[in-house]
Amino acid sequence: HEDVPVIGDFDSCRRKGEVSSGGKARTPDWTDEDYKFAEPENDWYGFSKIREYLIQAKRGTVVAKKDES
To answer: How much is the pLDDT for 63?
Structure first.
């Protein structure tokens, strides 16, 4: 269905407590850049960023960032 959201991208998953996978697991502005170990809190942080984005999108207040490259 077109209206069913799907969250993917599990190629950098780690077991709880393992050292994070470095740069592979981090998306600027969507990840807590300070985390060092795989913890559920990291996932909840990411979900909160998705939620924030979707709420802004629904309100029409999403601000696109300029490409810094």
So the answer is: 75
Reply yes or no on whether the pLDDT at 1 is more than 80: no
Report the number of secondary-structure helices (H) and strands (E) in the chain.
1, 0
Euclidean distance between CA atoms 68 and 20, whole angstroms: 25
- Return the ∠ at Cα 47 (arms to 46 and 49), rounded to 5°: 65
Strand pairing partners for 36?
A: none
Give the Å distances, CA to CA, from 49 to 1, 18, 19. Answer: 24, 23, 22
14 closest CA partner among 34, 47, 37: 37
What does the DSSP 8-state code read for residue 23? G
User: What's the predicted TM-score (pTM) here?
Assistant: 0.68
